[in-house]
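Q: I'm building a small set of examples for a reading group on sequence design. Run inverse folding on the following structure and report the sequence directly after it, with nothing in between.
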């Protein structure tokens, strides 16, 4: 019906504004509902804690509360015995006067149960709650970030963004990098070839996007460019939908070499020229390597005017890496053993 209506000056802009108002109101309402739910769950948990302390009740009372609350409010979900235990733990971990004002009070209940299950340290819980609230992490992303020890590695990768991009834009571009990236979901060993690593990232694209961070959309693998009859292929191409910029990612399974940046810079220039639109921010390149010397990386980045960054990747989670013996430990163990060529003493 509206398609056949005559054009009205300014109608499209007005409709877009109305849609934005509706979306904003819906989001605000959802936030208020979530805040009240979190406040309710904290209150239930606090009451149970206090009564158990005052009356000396055991944990069996929680099952009775769950049964009676479900009977009284059959239309409401969340009153299972397990959930009431979570509520009690929640009230014991965060005091009433700050729970709603803090980041944890802005999170969905499922996120809070993840924090309670996965972390024992209160400061770490607050750190992950803050990151999840600020970045809009889904529950799966929060689980992944905790499992891969994001608090030990969410530092920006070394880049030359500050030197080659405008101040505000460089800060934004820096925020979409981190170092290192944990690719343990690929189930590959350190000897994997670049094409196998690349294919595995595409095969597990949901996990790849989760590790890259919020806002990334996958454009393609081995994206082809024809430059006056010469063929070139970009390893992995992404688009950041919040910053409106292409991100070129190149993979190297060995240690960083300065010449790698020349190739990456060339690909960034291609994407910038062939795909970038006037409304897009400048394309940036990110080189992922198995190992790097940060001093060499800094000197190398300084020689380029194309916005580039370098980060390492790990194929094992930090906890597993920490448990593995170092190269020095292996060498010492091997050299401390008996010399195979020496004679073996007779038992008798």
């Amino acid at each position: 019906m509206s398609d056949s209506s005559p054009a009205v000056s300014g109608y499209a802009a007005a409709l877009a504004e109305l849609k934005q108002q509706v979306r904003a109101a819906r989001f605000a309402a959802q936030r208020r509902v979530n805040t009240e739910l979190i406040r309710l769950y904290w209150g239930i948990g606090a009451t149970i804690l206090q009564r158990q302390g005052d009356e000396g009740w055991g944990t069996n009372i929680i099952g009775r509360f769950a049964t009676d609350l479900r009977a009284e409010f059959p239309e409401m979900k969340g009153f299972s015995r397990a959930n009431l235990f979570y509520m009690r733990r929640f009230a014991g971990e965060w005091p009433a006067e700050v729970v709603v004002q803090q980041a944890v009070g802005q999170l969905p209940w499922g996120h809070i149960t993840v924090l309670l299950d996965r972390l024992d340290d209160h400061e770490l819980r607050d750190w992950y709650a803050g990151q999840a609230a600020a970045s809009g992490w889904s529950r799966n992303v929060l689980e992944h970030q905790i499992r891969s020890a994001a608090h030990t590695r969410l530092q920006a990768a070394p880049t030359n963004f500050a030197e080659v991009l405008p101040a505000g834009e460089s800060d934004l571009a820096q925020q979409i990098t981190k170092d290192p990236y944990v690719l343990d979901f690929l189930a590959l060993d350190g000897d994997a070839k670049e094409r196998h690593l690349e294919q595995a990232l595409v095969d597990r694209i949901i996990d790849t996007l989760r590790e890259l961070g919020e806002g990334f959309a996958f454009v393609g693998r081995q994206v082809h460019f024809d430059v006056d009859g010469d063929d070139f292929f970009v390893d992995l191409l992404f688009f950041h939908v919040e910053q409106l910029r292409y991100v070129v990612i190149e993979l190297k399974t060995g240690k960083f070499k300065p010449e790698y940046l020349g190739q990456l810079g060339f690909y960034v220039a291609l994407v910038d020229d062939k795909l970038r639109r006037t409304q897009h921010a400048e394309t940036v390149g990110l080189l992922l390597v198995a190992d790097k010397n940060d001093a060499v990386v800094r000197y190398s980045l300084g020689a380029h005017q194309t916005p580039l960054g370098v980060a390492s990747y790990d194929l094992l989670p930090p906890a597993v890496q920490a448990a593995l013996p170092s190269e020095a430990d292996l060498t010492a163990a091997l050299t401390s053993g008996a010399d195979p060529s020496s004679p073996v003493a007779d038992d008798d």
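DSSP finds 15 helices and six strands in the chain.
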